Amino acid sequence: MSLLESLQKDMIAAMKAKDKVKLGTIRMLKAAVVNEQIEVGHDLSSDEEIAVLSRELKQRKDFLEEFKNAGRDEAVQNLKNEIKVVESYLPEQLSEDEVKTIVQETIDQVGATSKADFGKVMGAVMPKLKGKADGKLVNATVKELLN
């Protein structure tokens, strides 16, 4: 079942359950996927779908930090609920130890030895971890291992 079919099925279930947060989030996700399809001019591959979902998740996490800093507790709770919904459509995230192992293997593969090789390592490791790990975690792990 494609992501759009899954979103449609879950949207109907959320309507029947009168779950406004889940329904609103699924509608936003569906719109983002359809907009991306229109932009690229073809049905999305699973990697492209994951990229769209990852982008939506990142936006919500960024807003979450801003709302926390502004003291908007109700908006923070709504965003946490939205984040749970978005995460349910993404592949399971890797643990810090798993990310560290993959980053170390990549460092060894590209022969990186110093901070100057940061870009080379990130360029090689991100395709392996796309949708499976948070970019901030990968970035921090690469910096830590290159020091």
Automatic annotation (TrEMBL):
Organism ancestry: Bacteria, Bacillati, Bacillota, Bacilli, Lactobacillales
PANTHER family referenced in this protein's UniProt entry, alphabetically: ALTERED INHERITANCE OF MITOCHONDRIA PROTEIN 41, MITOCHONDRIAL (PTHR28055)
InterPro entries, sorted: Asn/Gln_tRNA_amidoTrase-B-like, GatB_Yqey_C_2, YqeY/Aim41, YqeY/Aim41_N
Protein name per Swiss-Prot or TrEMBL: GatB/Yqey domain protein
Molecular function terms, GO-annotated: carbon-nitrogen ligase activity, with glutamine as amido-N-donor
Origin superkingdom: Bacteria
